[in-house]
Amino acid sequence: MRVPLLAVSGGLTRAWTPTTIRALGKNEDYLEGLIGKAPELLGLEDLRTHVKGPYAAFHQLEVETPLGNVIAPDIVFLTQSGHVVVVEVKLADNQGLKGRDVVAQVVDYAASIARYTEQELTELFDRELPSGSRFSDLVRKHLPTCSAPAQLAAEVVRKIRAAEIHLVVACDEAPEGLREFVASVTAQQALGSYELRVCELTPFIGPSGAAGDVFLVPTGMVRTEVVARTVVEVTGVQAESQRVSAKVTPQDEVQANVAAVTGVPAVTQPQIAGAVEAYSRMVEPGTKVTGSNPTYRFVVVSGWPGNLHYEFIHRKTRDELGAELHFESGDKAVLRAAAAVRDAKLTATPEMPKLLWDQDWQKGRGRLRALFTSDTDPAVVARAMVALIRKTRAIVEKALNE
Which of 120, 158, 165, 369 is most buried (CB neighbours < 10 A)? Predict the structure, then answer.
């Protein structure tokens, strides 16, 4: 049961009542933004963890899992103490918070990002750095008070590759069973140092006429020491007894999965390599292909922000090979450009026979997709990229300049 807070000032008392973010008329983006500005709320800083700020916050860093699924936690923090924190933010009414999915997502993310090389990590965290930048350049930019950026960069990359990552599920109210589930996760040795914790951040509101202030109070924290690289499987939740039973992946399977995740160098998929090579023969003026991820490549336009770009992307498990236009920021100009492209209601053409607008992309920011099957000739996909750029570039630039 949640109890109110009592504020005492000048002999007067006022009761502050617990509520939820949704009851305040806000959404998950609001809570994500608060945590991004005040990561100390997560309670990570103590003598056991040695986590210490300053923090650099990165939102919605999208990676592909070994199975081909795309996941992007709400926040990844890099700290000046050399730690990495992955945070998934959920509100109390989000159904994903009530099952194993929210835990599976942060664990899968940590396992997937461990496959990245230093160069791939640099591009993942900051696409606007010059081509060929090192992770130490990223540290200099985002943690400018660091006195030894090269050493810090090496330690952060080591921790990511070794899966020494703090995983946090942050919510405004934890549903029954979530804390018990996290507490029941069994430590597995020789798996790195994942630490999983649930952090409940309860908003409190004052009595009527209290200037509309809100207190955000960390409560109900629970953590584990180490979590397996593979997802813990929940086999039953008994509502009557409020029991959670969980089965941890056997050690032989865990070791096989670890080898699959970390032991194989990332090789560019032939569909992506073929599309990039074909595009190089018909490249649109003012654009260039960047990146080294095996499953996608950015096509950036000179003068555009880095979180607004075209992209060749391959999703093997979905049998999708695409030429796409991505809007990956809450910046007003980028959102304005996304709305302009959406409202243009562009239709299919011979070069782009399957053209669709995906409004759910990046929490409603959107993307325009020209989709093909995985076995499509990469030259066809490259021609679709050219057609996509020619159809949308003027629309985007007009919106950016308004």
Answer: 165
Residue 250, both tokens? 């056997």
**Distance (Å, whole) CA 3 – CA 17:** 7
**Could you tell me how far CA 360 lies from the centroid of its own chain?**
15
Q: Residue 135 domain-assigned? A: no
Examine residue 137 and state whether it is found in any structural domain, yes or no: no
Residue 123 forms part of a structural domain: no
In this structure, the number of other CB atoms found within 10 A of the CB of residue 242 comes to: 10
Domain count, the chain: 2
Query: How many whole angstroms separate alpha carbon 150 and alpha carbon 136?
Result: 5
112: left (phi over 0), alpha (psi -120 to 50) or beta: alpha
End-of-domain residue from the set 199, 231, 262: 262
Mean pLDDT estimate for the chain:
79
**Residue 47 neighbours by CB under 8 Å, 6+ apart:** none
Question: Among residues 64, 96, 104, 87, which one has the least CA distance to residue 233?
Answer: 104
Q: Kindly state whether residues 23 and 63 are assigned to the same domain.
A: yes
For residues 223 and 187, is the Cβ–Cβ distance under 8 A?
no
Same domain, residue pair 230 and 325:
no
The per-residue pLDDT for range 72-95, each reduced to its tens digit, is 888 999 999 999 998 989 888 887
Question: Which pLDDT score, from 0 to 100, does residue 288 have?
Answer: 93
Both 311 and 170 in one domain: the answer is no
CA 378 – CA 260 distance, rounded (Å): 28
Domain carrying residue 340: 270-400
In a domain, 307, yes or no: yes
Do both 69 and 178 map to the same domain?
Answer: yes
Residue 9 near residue 209, CB atoms below 8 Å: no
Nearest partner of 295 among 86, 115, 40, judged by Cα: 115
* Residue 342, H or E segment: helix 332-344
Residue 253: CA count within 13 A, CB half-sphere: 8
Q: Counting Cβ atoms within 10 Å, is residue 397 exposed (0-12), middle (13-18) or buried (19+)?
A: middle
d(CA 335, CA 308): 10
Residues 125-183: pLDDT tens digits? 998 888 888 999 999 999 999 999 999 999 999 888 877 788 888 888 877 666 666 65
Strands 75-79 and 12-18: unpaired
Q: Are residues 18 and 107 in the same domain?
A: yes
